[in-house]
C-alpha cells in the first residue's frame, strides 16, 4: 500500500504546475550525504511517520460485489493510516527552491481528495477516496526540527504532506449464493393424521391453516393445539 501511495505522489508532483519541468522526485532521507551526491534539481518526498488514524476504524463486515452487484465475498473494513511526508526542494539557490515549493503547493492543494480511479493496484481496488493534506497543522509526536536533527541535516523550508490511506483487511470470506426462492416446510403428518403425499410442500401460513381446519369446534374453544 505504501509503495502505491509513493507512485501516486510521484505522478502528481510531475504533473500540475511542474508539467514538463523535468524535475525529478525522490523518496530518500535528505541527509547530508544524500544532499552532497545530488547534481540536479529535485523534489524530495521523505516518508518520516506512519500512524493509524483510529478515528476512522470501523467494526463489522463489508460486502464485496461483482460486476452484477451480487455479493460474492465479505471482509472486514480497511484500516486507515496517516503517511506523513517531509517535502523539500533542492536546487542551487534558495529562490529556486521557494519557486519549486510554490509549484508543489499549487499542484497538491486542489487535490484534497483523490478518487479511486486515480489510485493504482490494491489501493484503487478498494473503491475508496484518499484524503490528502498539505502544510496542515502538525499533529504527529515529533516536530520537523527534531526530524531534521535526527537526519543530521540543516533545517530548511519544507512542507508537511499527509496522505490518509486505507490498508485492506484480511482475510476475505466467500458469501453464499443469493436466495432466489422462498422457504418451504415439508410436513409428513400432523397429530396422528396419515402422512401427506411425498414431495408436497407448504409455506408456514399454509401449515397453520391446515392445522386449524383439522381441529374441531371443541378444540378451538379449549385452545388445544
Which features would summarize this protein structure in a list?
225 residues, alpha+beta, 2 domains, three-stranded antiparallel beta sheet
How would you characterize this protein structure?
The longest helix is centred in the middle third of the chain and has 15 residues, at 94-108. This protein is 28% helix and 24% strand. By secondary structure, the chain is an alpha+beta fold. The radius of gyration is 32 Å and the shape is elongated. It has helices at 2-13, 32-37, 94-108, 121-125, 144-151, 204-214, 217-222; strands spanning 24-26, 42-52, 62-65, 71-75, 79-90, 113-114, 130-134, 159-167, 172-174. The strands form two sheets. Strands 1-2-5-8-7-6 form a six-stranded mixed beta sheet. The chain has a three-stranded antiparallel beta sheet with strand order 3-4-9, with no helix packed on it. It is built from seven helices and nine strands; from the N terminus they run H-E-H-E-E-E-E-H-E-H-E-H-E-E-H-H. It folds into two domains: 2-174, no CATH class; 182-225, no CATH class. This is DUF4255 domain-containing protein. Pfam families: Pvc16_N (PF14065). Residues 188-225 are annotated as: Disordered. InterPro entries: Pvc16_N. Residues 4-181 form the Pvc16 N-terminal domain.
Amino acid at each position: 500500500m505504501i509503495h502505491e501511495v509513493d507512485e501516486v505522489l510521484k505522478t502528481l508532483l510531475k504533473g500540475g504546475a511542474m508539467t514538463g519541468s523535468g524535475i525529478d522526485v525522490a523518496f530518500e532521507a535528505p541527509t547530508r550525504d544524500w544532499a552532497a551526491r545530488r547534481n540536479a534539481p529535485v523534489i524530495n518526498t521523505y516518508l518520516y511517520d506512519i500512524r493509524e488514524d483510529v478515528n476512522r476504524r470501523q467494526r463489522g463486515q463489508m460486502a464485496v460485489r461483482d460486476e452484477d452487484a451480487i455479493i460474492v465475498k465479505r471482509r472486514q473494513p480497511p484500516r486507515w493510516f496517516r503517511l506523513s511526508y517531509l517535502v523539500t526542494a533542492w536546487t542551487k539557490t534558495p529562490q529556486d527552491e521557494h519557486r519549486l515549493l510554490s509549484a508543489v503547493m499549487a499542484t497538491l492543494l486542489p487535490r484534497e481528495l483523490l478518487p479511486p480511479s486515480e489510485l493504482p493496484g490494491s489501493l484503487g481496488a478498494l473503491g475508496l477516496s484518499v484524503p490528502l493534506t498539505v502544510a496542515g497543522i502538525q499533529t504527529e509526536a515529533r516536530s520537523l526540527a527534531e526530524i531534521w536533527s535526527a537526519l543530521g541535516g540543516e533545517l530548511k523550508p519544507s512542507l508537511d504532506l499527509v496522505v490518509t490511506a486505507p490498508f485492506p483487511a484480511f482475510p476475505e470470506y466467500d458469501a453464499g449464493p443469493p436466495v432466489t426462492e422462498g422457504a418451504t416446510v415439508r410436513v409428513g403428518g400432523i397429530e396422528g393424521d396419515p402422512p401427506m403425499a411425498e414431495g408436497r410442500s407448504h409455506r408456514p401460513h399454509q401449515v397453520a391453516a391446515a392445522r386449524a381446519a383439522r381441529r374441531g369446534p371443541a378444540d378451538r374453544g379449549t385452545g388445544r393445539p
